[in-house]
């Protein structure tokens, strides 16, 4: 396995846990795209267990292998993104999921099929297969790692103006914490259903001393300068993923409807101010960004990758290292003089 490979932890069900309960493939587990029949109705098996499949990303998001430390799958096995499938329940609830094929040792046949839903299917609920997309799987997987701001989020410019993120343009001078005024090089935008893995994190006004409600993608990272090391990292500068702040009260998941996300890229990883709160800019590895970046931007990232990505300006807090109920309180205490 290539040294330095980026890793992704994916929550998956074995295909056998999601079977057709009505339709042409009655009784069969979810299959690969060429076996699926639109209109077939699926249901999650009672007590179905989710597994963690850790994959290492190779030269592109289409070159995945099961990581050595993965709790599920055979270490080193190639994993292929077969398709993205969309299911709909009778009440109109939709579930999008990637179908992942783990190949055998010869890489000619599927050894295990995995279902990776972006929002968990409910037990005792029937889901009709309504769409099969063979092209967008890698893009959807790449988007899970994006550091994004929702439409309307105000970003602080070098002159002090706070401008809605959707009104920014390449070349605009943005205020950054470490390097002062920096030109914005690229801005990406996409609309996603606000559910499951793509549901935004909504931080109420004032919770982190933010000037207004702050809406971020789950993977976006809030910067904290610790005056006291309450997070136990041994570092003063820490990034905390927004998803780790959810407490069900003043930090919640904004489920329902759609959300428009925006990614900001500079010449190097930067810390920018969103509603007055320090957050991380988008600085991906080219192998992870290939499905979502324009060719010209991707080529520049590959050519000048070491400079454009640089080194992370802070350490990222590990999943589970922060108790959600006290997360915002601890962050306030850690940054207090």
TrEMBL record:
Residues 146-255 form the Hint domain. It comes from Meinhardsimonia xiamenensis. Pfam families: Hint_2. The lineage of its organism: Bacteria, Pseudomonadati, Pseudomonadota, Alphaproteobacteria, Rhodobacterales. This is Hint domain-containing protein.
């Amino acid at each position: 396995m290539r040294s330095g490979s980026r890793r992704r932890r994916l929550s998956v069900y074995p295909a056998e846990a999601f079977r057709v309960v009505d339709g042409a493939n009655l009784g069969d587990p979810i299959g690969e795209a060429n076996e699926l029949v639109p209109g077939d109705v699926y249901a999650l098996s009672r007590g179905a267990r989710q597994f963690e499949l850790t994959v290492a990303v190779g030269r592109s998001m289409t070159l995945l292998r099961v990581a050595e430390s993965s709790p599920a799958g055979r270490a080193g096995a190639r994993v292929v993104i077969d398709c993205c499938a969309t299911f709909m329940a009778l009440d109109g609830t939709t579930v999008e999921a990637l179908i992942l094929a783990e190949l055998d040792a010869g890489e000619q046949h599927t050894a295990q099929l995995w279902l990776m839903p972006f929002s968990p299917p409910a037990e005792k609920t029937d889901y009709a297969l309504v769409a099969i997309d063979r092209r967008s799987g890698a893009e959807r997987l790449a988007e899970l790692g994006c550091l994004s701001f929702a439409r309307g989020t105000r970003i602080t410019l070098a002159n002090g103006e706070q401008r809605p993120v959707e009104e920014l343009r390449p070349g605009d001078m943005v205020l950054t914490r470490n390097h002062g005024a920096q030109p914005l090089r690229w801005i990406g935008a996409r609309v996603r259903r606000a559910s499951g893995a793509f549901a935004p994190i909504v931080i109420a006004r004032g919770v982190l001393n933010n000037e207004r409600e702050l809406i971020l993608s789950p993977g976006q990272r809030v910067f904290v300068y610790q005056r006291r090391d309450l997070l136990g990292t041994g570092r003063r500068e820490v990034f905390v993923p927004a998803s780790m702040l959810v407490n069900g009260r003043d930090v919640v998941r904004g489920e329902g409807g759609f959300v428009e996300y925006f990614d900001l890229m500079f010449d190097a990883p930067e810390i920018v101010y969103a509603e007055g709160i320090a957050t991380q800019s988008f600085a991906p590895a080219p192998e992870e960004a290939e499905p979502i970046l324009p060719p010209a931007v991707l080529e520049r990232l590959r050519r000048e990758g070491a400079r454009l990505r640089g080194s992370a300006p802070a350490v990222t807090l590990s999943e589970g290292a922060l108790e959600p109920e006290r997360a915002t309180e601890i962050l306030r205490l850690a940054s207090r003089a």
